[in-house]
Amino acid sequence: MVGHTSHIYPFSDDAKEIARERCQHVLFTLLFGAEVLAPVALEHGGRVLDVGCGPGSWIEAVKSRYPATEATAVDYHPTYTPAPDSGITFTLGDVLEGLPFPDDHFDLVHHRAMILAIETDEWPRVIAELARVTKPGGWVQLTEAHLDIHARLGMTPRLRVWNEKVVRGTVLEIGADPDVAPKLAAHAAAAGLGGRVTRVAPAHLARSGAGEIGRLMAADFLAVIELLAPRIAGNDATPAQVMLWAESVLNEAEWHEVYFNFYATVAQKPGGGVVEGAAVGGS
């Protein structure tokens, strides 16, 4: 999400960030196999909302796959201008202040990669607002990365320090929750959503040997660290030194088969033909 829903979001709406988010869209799609993971029938229409749409990559892909849908994108900033013939509507709106849509309106509400935009204690309110605008029987789809390093061949001292000081430490300093991804289903339950199914997809951090997912992860890793380098550096280092540190961590990550887990949770609003225990998958 380029345009943030909270003052804590640390990135600007520049061309570099938009390019990063477009690549991130490809990463999410490769990890989970499709843009739409909820078992919602869109072939013959339906209303779809992308909350925190950024440059519009997800909503464009959904509209292309399901042209009969009524596709709407919303973001805090004017991050996206749909093509005149796209059939997509963009609206300014802030999920924390209340989305500019009526209750029980959308068949599918999508919310992704907001971990750096939402403060820890704001998540229940955010997901409750997503549930509000979802139709009875409709679905909310939530996807986030768990910001905690795993290493198949064991954590090294360098990786541990990076994980605690940079990955988790920086997120906590911003006011966000590095562990929100595995909590998505619980937040959805608290918002009254049922039929909850969560899928976990590991993504290796490697420029080589892990395919396109590894390459995209490595590129995103370096792009994020470059954006956060002044904050990470503080008074103890320079941004250039932080980037050298990041390169050394990336090299070590490849040798130790480092990965992050990504979580996708779909949940259904009660009423309208509830599908309990529905599978998460491509459609």
UniProtKB/TrEMBL annotation:
Superkingdom to which the source organism belongs: Eukaryota
Gene3D superfamilies: Vaccinia Virus protein VP39 (3.40.50.150)
Pfam families associated with the record: Methyltransf_25 (PF13649)
Domain Methyltransferase: 48-138
PANTHER family: 2-METHOXY-6-POLYPRENYL-1,4-BENZOQUINOL METHYLASE, MITOCHONDRIAL, METHYLTRANSFERASE
Name of this protein: Methyltransferase domain-containing protein
Gene source species: Vanrija albida
